């Protein structure tokens, strides 16, 4: 398929999804729809924010922690991907707020004890650090500068993502989330999702720029991505099993796990998280790695993304159900039907956040690939690609 | 002056006059529900509610009614997490929400260990507004779109787009150091809900706390607060 067709195809798909999502958000504001629960918009923005760790191989390589020159081929793409992936998260957060006009108070009346306040600060600094890194990559410069900038990106990435995880981990009213485990678990989901996102995003960018996936890019995915996924997915399985096993020590956590593993949410847990996101994915990754089949790896990556997103969504929903069931149990009420709460969580208005975020991501990524100087041969004006008119006419 | 709120559940008959008084006092949207679970403890939809517990008692099952409201905790998790400091505490220890600073992130709802903070069910209210019976009862919709206009306009009244919670009717306090009376306490027909001043040596309500008859509901959570229970 010719690259302009892919570009316009991705762009149009993105715009259509964006339109669907935007309509849902408009409907939300007109009807004043909101929930006391943290509903579906929350896992959408959390997932996109957590999955913005795609610059990790670049930072690790710059810090000489990873010896893999194959990273250099895609380094600018991975940094741009980090920036592009975090932007839809901000949009969805703003859509979720019921009084967005009060947002400036977050800085005018900053609460140093509030992790949400720090989330705003850390993510802004993280994005700025990524922009600096991207400029540095495009303009070149000394390895020493690259080292310090990479360190800054890594530090603020860790701060931003761990803090995001601990927003949930410090929620005293939801015991199933409370504790350091949630921070670790969410960051693990983020890293797995980031590595899964790389082959998908690179497939799109390679098709747009070159019409096919170059061998150097395939080399990167099989040298770094597939190996990373084969290590990280078992880690995710271990943490999930840990959560399920240790739930027996805490009634509200047990309630949450019961709903997730045995109750109304169990089909999604076993079907999407375990079978699709872990078992089938691992088999496909191994086969694709042995056969060096990029297409198969991309399919596996898509399954991994679906599994990780579902795991995050169920963790957030089940935790709140667990808190409510536990409170009901204190008053002697067991087996309360949470169908209305689950409906509230997955209401059509809440679900519109997903096409909004995915659509925006597709649009921004397609435009970034087309307009930014993301390859070493590209001539740059600041970070934008200087398109040679003669080359354009030749094509 | 140190306010203290005592609930004697032995006296509560479950009439819910307190809930109605609170709704009218603060201009909350009120949507009647056919769902019998509407009064059960969960993330609340009103500033105060009354739940019940049925217990076997020989051959006579009994039902005990328990009033719930914000505990105005001494160690305040909701205040700690609010990113804009919309949630704040007065010198008397009453926890309030500045509706103009609240962004609606609902982090405080997640932080509250007792589920006593909520977003007003605006969507339900707007749907109910289309019901002919509800329409006839509508009054004062200019104020934030609520069904009832608060008799005393105040900055802590219900706002449909901001988090809501019990304010102990702080708008009734005129700053003179003398204890006031919340709407629910004023309305309660059996005297189950009581409000006193811990600094007043002659206050009978405070005396229940000083003698240890009235205690915090869930001391293990460590938040303490202004609300005590007798008979829990």
Poorly predicted runs of chain A are none
Structural class of chain B: alpha+beta
What is the helix/strand order of chain B?
EHEEHEEHHHHEHE
Q: Which structural category do the helix and sheet elements of chain A fall into? A: mainly alpha
Placed side by side, the strands forming the largest sheet of chain A appear as 1-2
The quaternary organization reads as heterodimer
| Main sheet: strands, sense, barrel of chain A | 2 strands, antiparallel
**Beginning-to-end CA distance, first to last residue of chain A:** 14 Å
Largest sheet of chain B: 3 strands, mixed
Helix content of chain A: over 70%
Give the amount of beta strand of chain A, in percent. Answer: under 5%
The number of distinct helices of chain A, counting runs of at least 4 residues, comes to 16
The overall pLDDT of chain A, averaged over residues, is: 91
Strand content of chain B: 15-25%
Mean pLDDT of chain B: 83
Give the number of helices of chain B: 7
Q: Measured on Cα atoms, how large is the radius of gyration of chain A?
A: 21 Å
